[in-house]
Amino acid sequence: MASTRRNSYMPATEWVDPTPLPADDPHIDPNTPELGLTSAPLKSVAFFLGAVCKDKTDDFMLCKQDNNDPKACLSQGKQVTDCGIEVVNKVKQHCADSFANHWKCLDLNNQEYKSCRPQERTFNECIFTSLGWQKTIPGAPKDKQGEVQQIWNKKNQIFS
């Protein structure tokens, strides 16, 4: 049985969960904005989010580890969300074209980085020159000179 190719459907309006938040809970702020990214843009900017928001994310994870009550960590979670929104807004402000090219490539290629190395290289260069953020992969192996050789900087990639 052959499958058919169908175009994806993206509604013009944003979906909002109709379930109301509990009105009696002082910990919940219904006006808290969300990041507003789908998986491809989020994956494209993920390493920068992880690096820039590391301290806030660590505080949030420690809070979650120490408390069984999810309400206890809502303020730390809001700080992580605010940091993420700030990072995404800076990326969109300074590198909108290269960001869009990279995440669209990821979206079209099953979200595999290996298919989008040229766009990734351009995006990383823009981020570094505009914002001074450098993408590093934690635990990446070192080369013969003792320096970390990031995969998108390799000239002759055998495996990416």
TrEMBL record:
Q: Where in the cell is it found?
A: Mitochondrion
Which keywords does this chain's UniProt record carry?
Disulfide bond, Electron transport, Mitochondrion, Repeat, Respiratory chain, Transport, Ubiquinone
User: What GO CC annotations are associated with the protein?
Assistant: mitochondrion
Q: Where is this region: Disordered?
A: 1-29
Role this protein plays? Accessory subunit of the mitochondrial membrane respiratory chain NADH dehydrogenase (Complex I), that is believed not to be involved in catalysis. Complex I functions in the transfer of electrons from NADH to the respiratory chain. The immediate electron acceptor for the enzyme is believed to be ubiquinone.
Q: What is this protein called?
A: NADH-ubiquinone oxidoreductase
Can you tell me which family this protein belongs to?
Belongs to the complex I NDUFA8 subunit family.
Naturally occurring in which organism (per UniProt)? Zancudomyces culisetae
Entry keyword annotation includes 4Fe-4S = no
Q: Is Iron given among the entry's keywords?
A: no
Query: Among the record's GO biological process terms, what is one?
Result: mitochondrial electron transport, NADH to ubiquinone
